[in-house]
Design goal:
Length: 344
């Protein structure tokens, strides 16, 4: 999976070393285009590049245009589609269309606040003027430096609230609303059968998967190939790991001595999802134990338990699917609602 944070850091390192560098970003797609909006490719003056904007279809054209952008400093918006004869030769003949914005990294300091936020585990939203290349951070209070009528401001904040990269057009101007986010992380507590099914599902969805279980007989590389394993008690493990807003935590042991300290650590963090395995009766007992530790009802409401969407799941793989689906729903739907009022 692409990591836009790593791509940004690499292209900034090139620029700071004195090399000319450019960043290409997918800003709009239609039909069966191979990469989503927000996909990125970085290139330097020697032709070294990382990332992808088309899965190989139009990279050659993008690199050629990026060389010109690095020389002139003028950003460009490239368009490929079924009506473009060139698109057939580069692989978009299946009915897709794609727009790619290419900009020179002339001032690395313009991205410093984005990198700082990534280092803190925080996301950054920005509006990029596709004519000038001006990039202005979006927040719930202002659109400093950009002047919009009410309808345009509403369109930008609606895009911000949805949490999806999108092309926003106003009279005479085009803007791309972009998001720079830390990698998603899933912390699984309990090396159980459900965890064996959930880990690869989450990894395929772009999560860095971390598994915590003090029981060394369960948490083995043979059972969890490629997963970061920590054979520690949660109260010790969470002393050294910072849970941020891009983290989900699921507690699966059904053993309070292991699950409860992990849930407590998550409740004291901005984790976007907290789930705990168990029946409704077990969930109520858990809430009672946490109330005794001083947690109020608003905090307890953050815990998804019984865990997972109600899809009739029975086997460990089905339960894992239900958990992954619920995590996705919270991430993509509920988590974005906090910005909804800004669109008004």
């Amino acid at each position: 999976m692409d990591d836009n944070g790593s791509i940004l850091r690499e292209v900034l390192a090139w620029a700071r070393s004195g090399r000319k560098a450019a960043l290409a970003t997918v800003v709009s797609t239609w039909g069966s285009s191979p990469r989503a909006a927000g996909s990125r490719l970085a290139v330097d003056e020697f032709g070294h590049f990382i990332g992808s904007v088309s899965g190989g279809c139009v990279e050659g054209e993008v690199l050629a245009n990026a060389a010109e952008v690095m020389e002139t400093g003028k950003p460009t918006l490239l368009e490929f589609g079924v009506s473009d004869g060139k698109a057939w030769s580069v692989g978009l003949a299946c009915g897709g269309a794609i727009k790619i914005f290419v900009e020179k990294i002339a001032d690395p300091s313009a991205f410093e606040s984005i990198v700082r936020n990534l280092d803190r585990g925080e996301e950054t939203a920005a509006a990029v003027d596709l004519d000038s290349g001006e990039r202005v951070l979006l927040d719930s209070a202002s659109l400093d430096g950009l002047y919009f009528d009410k309808a345009s401001r509403r369109a930008l904040f609606t895009a911000r609230a949805r949490g999806l990269e999108s092309l926003t057009e106003t009279p005479g101007r085009k803007f791309f609303v972009e998001f720079w986010r830390p990698p998603l992380r899933l912390i699984i507590v309990g090396a159980v059968h459900i965890a064996q099914a959930l880990a690869p599902i989450a990894a395929a969805a772009g999560y860095q998967v971390i598994l915590v279980d003090p029981r060394s007989a369960f948490a083995t590389p043979e059972r969890f190939a490629g997963v970061e394993l920590h054979r520690e008690w949660p109260e010790d493990f969470f002393q050294s790991l910072r849970i941020d807003a891009r983290c989900a935590l699921v507690a699966l042991t059904h053993e309070p001595r292991i699950d409860d300290p992990a849930v407590v650590a998550a409740l004291r963090s901005p984790a976007f999802y907290i789930g705990a395995l168990g029946s409704r009766g077990s969930a109520e007992k858990r809430r009672a134990r946490l109330r005794a530790q001083g947690f109020g009802e608003s905090a307890l409401a953050r815990i998804h338990g019984p865990i997972g969407l109600s899809i009739g799941a029975a086997s460990p793989p089905e339960i894992a699917i239900a958990i992954a689906a619920e995590m996705t729903a919270v991430l993509r739907l509920e988590h974005a609602s906090s910005w909804g009022s800004a669109a008004e």
